[in-house]
């Protein structure tokens, strides 16, 4: 599964080619976020054979075109407790030309059904459990602190042109807060004892809950900044991941900037950040420097974050510019 | 709106007759639970002209037949913050022959859209706000303490034969707990100051949240016992309700037995009751005696509760028999 993260855009294109050749009438995705996201893309382009790959990719990297046609049924069975991809209309991949992840975000590609069986998470190593749990944590806090839906800049009258990420709202808040409470109670337990079925079950549900929340409200800067962190990885080898190449696992790349990000966004809605702050102290372990980044990398990291409008525009403190992003990355070099 | 509560079954039949005559292609319900529930029934029977009224009414009072045909679109605009009817497939009415409320419960009759505008709740008197808020409180606690979905007796393989109320489950829990938290924070404020838009808005949302929770999980004994309490009303006149007949408002009839009920159900799942208990202390004010019931009424109250299987079977302490119900009503005579 993690092998897919290497050059995901190529896997995407292979999967799309394979789907078009097979003309399948349904899709079954069993795996982590990369697997489910690949199936979403294969499904989308199978049903839109006349479109170029970049047509549906998020602007400004792609054209962000609306999807007007129904896709085939996709059933997703997640085997990690992090991504929430089984609940969302988001599909993320490495875009090699920019050395950053980007994606497709459209409610049309959301799976028809997710089968969430906690026995599928017992295989996860402590490190994989932690990293995917960090993703859940950030999904929950970012969606809970994302700018409110009524404050967003772009609210097109045509609903088909509205972004999948619409900002925090009274429905997403329910899911995000509930997920956060479960993370606080069960994340540590789920890491410490891989046979703790209660903890693993709850974290699996938390990934679903947070998925429904952020799939609707969106995430913001931790995710936006994580894409170049993952894309620009140098020699860092993820512990306990069975891959032959350098890799910063998604959850780790997301959680790394979270203290800096939430210090930046907190003044915009202090109440919501205060609720989240108690939980955050529980899970932070290191900094970007420990992942092999140096100060000289910051300009490239900033450059990789700037086009992530889909998420950066949801930051409650305003869409940060180059200087602010550079400062956030600098502050994330050593977290503690 | 409250006038409808007098002899609701006749209003139901009038509305059904009117709908059949008009052959409408859609429905718009603006009001409290009675209004929305009436529109649901009119819609259902308009689309099933060959069926008798009792065909779809809950067993054992009616036949509880499955609904196999689509109904017309119904848009619901709630003007109270209690019922949650805009979110559910439940329609409740007074069934005169039994002097008890009963209803139709089928996901087919759920409104297509609810428009939840808190400005519609500013007209509510403090008493109406309290009573409808009690309903939200009990929706939240009852659905959170309802027996878990996997413990229910009847789990027919044919999904069309499964009850609308399926027992507490990981999705309903999210909504019920969230609603409970809002009730704890805003119910008192919403009663004390009718111009407190923040409190009224939050209680309006809480009624929606609790509605999604209980519409899915179900309610149990407080609701099951409330139906004969309302049906057997003698001379009690509800304060601040503009009606010319005796009436125990729904929320009041529900909350009145809640201490006795939750003492009865607590040993079955103490953790969930302990969470709810802190909130319950906030809102109880009196007992059944103050509403005009005496000990001699208990047999009739019990008799009116016994056929409410749809909800009583979800009680986590087991479906109580005559003696247990009598004791619960006795304990509810004087709450404090």
Automatic annotation (TrEMBL), chains A, B:
**Where do the TM regions start and end?**
none
Could you give one GO CC term from the UniProt record? mitochondrion
| Residue intervals of the Fe-containing alcohol dehydrogenase-like C-terminal domain | 167-283
Kinase listed as a keyword: no
Q: What is this protein called?
A: hydroxyacid-oxoacid transhydrogenase
Q: What is its main location?
A: mitochondrion
Question: Any idea of its EC number?
Answer: 1.1.99.24
Please write the reaction equations for the catalytic activity of this protein: 4-hydroxybutanoate + 2-oxoglutarate = (R)-2-hydroxyglutarate + succinate semialdehyde; (S)-3-hydroxybutanoate + 2-oxoglutarate = (R)-2-hydroxyglutarate + acetoacetate
Family named by the database record: Belongs to the iron-containing alcohol dehydrogenase family. Hydroxyacid-oxoacid transhydrogenase subfamily.
Residue span, Alcohol dehydrogenase iron-type/glycerol dehydrogenase GldA domain: 13-118
- What is the originating organism of this protein? Acropora cervicornis (Staghorn coral)
The opening ranks of the lineage are: Eukaryota, Metazoa, Cnidaria, Anthozoa, Hexacorallia
The cellular location(s) given in this protein's UniProt record come to: Mitochondrion
Give the Pfam families listed for this entry: ADH_Fe_C, Fe-ADH
Keywords, ordered alphabetically = Mitochondrion, Oxidoreductase, Transit peptide
> What's one GO MF term for it?
metal ion binding
Family annotation (Gene3D superfamilies): 3.40.50.1970, Dehydroquinate synthase-like - alpha domain (1.20.1090.10)
For whether the record's keyword set contains Oxidoreductase, the answer is yes
């Amino acid at each position: 599964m993690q092998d897919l993260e290497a050059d995901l855009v190529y896997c995407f294109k292979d999967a799309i080619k394979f789907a078009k050749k097979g003309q399948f009438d349904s899709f079954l995705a069993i795996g982590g976020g990369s697997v489910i996201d690949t199936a979403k893309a294969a499904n989308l382009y199978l049903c839109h054979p006349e479109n170029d790959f970049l047509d549906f990719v998020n602007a400004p990297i792609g054209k962000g075109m609306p999807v007007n046609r129904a896709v085939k049924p996709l059933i997703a069975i997640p085997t990690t407790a992090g991504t929430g991809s089984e609940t969302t209309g988001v599909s993320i991949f490495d875009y090699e030309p920019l050395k950053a992840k980007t994606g497709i975000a459209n409610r049309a590609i959301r799976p028809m059904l997710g089968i969430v069986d906690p026995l599928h998470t017992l295989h996860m190593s402590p490190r994989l459990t932690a990293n995917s749990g960090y993703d859940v944590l950030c999904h929950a806090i970012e969606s809970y602190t994302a700018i409110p839906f009524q404050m967003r800049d772009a609210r097109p009258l045509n609903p088909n042109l509205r972004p999948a990420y619409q900002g925090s709202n009274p429905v997403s808040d329910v899911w995000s807060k509930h997920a956060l409470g479960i993370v606080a109670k069960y994340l540590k337990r789920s890491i410490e004892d891989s046979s703790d079925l209660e903890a693993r079950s709850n974290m699996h549900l938390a990934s679903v809950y947070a998925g429904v929340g952020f799939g609707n409200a969106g995430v913001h800067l931790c995710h936006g900044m994580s894409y170049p962190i993952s894309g620009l990885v140098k020699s860092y080898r993820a512990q306990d991941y069975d891959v032959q190449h350098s890799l910063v696992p998604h959850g780790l790349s997301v959680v790394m900037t979270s203290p800096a990000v939430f210090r930046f966004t907190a003044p915009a809605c202090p109440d919501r950040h205060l609720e989240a702050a108690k939980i955050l102290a529980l899970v932070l372990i290191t900094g970007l420097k420990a992942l092999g980044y140096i100060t000289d990398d910051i300009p490239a990291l900033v450059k990789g974050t700037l086009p992530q409008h889909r998420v950066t525009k949801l930051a409650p403190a305003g869409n940060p510019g180059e200087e602010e992003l550079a400062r956030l990355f600098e502050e994330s070099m050593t977290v503690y």
